[in-house]
Specification:
Elements lengths: L2 H10 E8 L3 H18 L6 H14 L8 E8 L2 E8 L20 H8 L2 E6 L5 E8 L8
Antiparallel strand pairs: 1-2, 2-3, 3-5, 4-5
């Protein structure tokens, strides 16, 4: 492999990972850290930060096991951003449900489904699961 190819490969793969407490504060911190990481990479903030907020909130609300953290990971490979949230509660895998009109919650995965290019759940080593979503991302156009 020549030097140019190595440089191009290295420059096109980026990642960020952090472990956070499975609390509303941890979910909020996940969104804030993801926002700053996306900004430092020069990528559009939305809808990525909305997806991070939803997946992290689900991890703190439904994937919470006392004393066990959740992990947020962002990968950028080429023009695809992959958002992963791994928690330690794998009894029930998430799937979108149609909430009643009066329900105050239950629309999060419908939002993920609408905003993401693809999304899904990967079962990991017991007792882990990872909920992920992918977006096409392009750097913002230069402003003149």
């Amino acid at each position: 492999m020549n030097q140019k190819s190595t440089t191009e490969l290295t420059a096109s793969v980026r990642n960020f990972s952090v472990q956070l407490s499975p609390t509303p504060r941890g979910a909020r911190l996940a969104r804030l850290l993801a926002t700053e990481q996306l900004r430092s990479w020069g990528l559009p903030l939305d809808p990525a930060r909305l997806l991070v907020a939803e997946l992290a909130n689900n991890a703190s609300a439904h994937g919470r096991v006392p004393g066990r953290d959740f992990r947020l990971t962002l990968y950028v490979v080429g023009d695809t951003l992959r958002i992963e949230v791994t928690d330690t509660r794998d009894e029930e895998l998430p799937h979108p449900r149609q909430p009643s009109l009066e329900a105050e919650s239950g629309r999060g995965l419908l939002l993920v489904e609408a905003l993401a290019l693809r999304w899904g759940v990967t079962e990991g080593r017991f007792p882990r699961k990872t909920v992920w979503a992918e977006l096409r991302c392009t750097p913002p156009e230069p402003r003149f």
